Amino acid sequence: MLIIMKLESPRSDIDRVIAKIKEMNCTPHEIPGSSKLAIGITGNMQFIKEEDFQLLPSVSEVIRVTKKFKLVSREMKSDDTVITFDDSSIGGNVFQIIAGPCSVESYDQTFEIAHELKEMGIKFFRAGAYKPRSSPYSFQGLKEKGLEILSDIKSKLGLKIVTEVMNSNSISSIIEVADIIQIGARNMQNYSLLEEVGATKKPIFLKRGMSATVEDLLLSAEYIASQNNFNIILCERGIRTFETSTRNTLDLNSIPVIKQWSHLPVFVDPSHGVGIWDKVPPMALASIAAGADGLMIEVHNNPSNALSDGYQSLTPKRFRELLKKINDICSIVDKDFYYEK
Ligand code: PEP
Ligand code: MN
User: Fold this and answer.
1) Where are the alpha helices (DSSP H) in 24-65?
2) Whose CA is nearest to atom 3 of ligand 1?
3) pLDDT band at 34 (very low <50, low <70, confident <90, very high)
């Protein structure tokens, strides 16, 4: 349920609504960044009626949210969520790119790629220190050592870091370095982990599970939002289908659906979605046309010797060529995109 309050409501009236929600053993959420003054209610709504709030001072409207997910729904907040960082933002009218190698492999490899990306105007650098791999015998990431390298990249190059957390043990060290915490496809339904990262109040990059529906993805985002953390970026990264010619099937249908159902920004990761480097640029461009707010793209300086996901990685040169085309499509769909020409 959503309580819409008059814009000029005194704080005492807002507090009265909040107290009433708590009295009914439910949780109030002041919805940030909305053009309306809105308070969402979550919890067991069985005994709550619209009339309980309609007559309270300053309440202008009470709306029942019909979707299973509440806080992340467009019904709860009609304006797009925009996540702001010191010199950049994600969501709204801006088109943003997160790029970097699949894994932190060494100091030199990570720095070389980060340096090239920075020169192209990229602000968000991705690289995994902890890697979820399908085989226990594959490279599992440099772990703490990888985080140290990312921390150096952050302080020396001023890039914002996006890196994955795989379990609660590493959250405290990852939040020291990460500007955005990535939850990978395999952990999308790890609900206790979602609550824990939500509670850190850091922006969360939530990837769609490989057999998750759009509703499942939004319900997972709801776990994060239920911790009063609305800084969530959703990511379509392809799902498992009967098709075997590509690594996954990039479900671009999900983009306009999510944009209609949720106020959260949506990214596409065509690198994992397709899994083959030369198919990444066309799917990246298609993602923009479908309405994505940004792209996550794997870039490696030496793809054939990469320790993970080399085959789907673009070289810096190919990535630079793609940026020009991204710029062209962004101007057609009226998104603001910045890169160093
Ligand atoms: C990754 O981003 O490198 C990754 C492991 O992605 P996903 O969780 O989508 O497989
Ligand atoms: Mn990868």
Assistant:
1) 51-54
2) 102
3) low
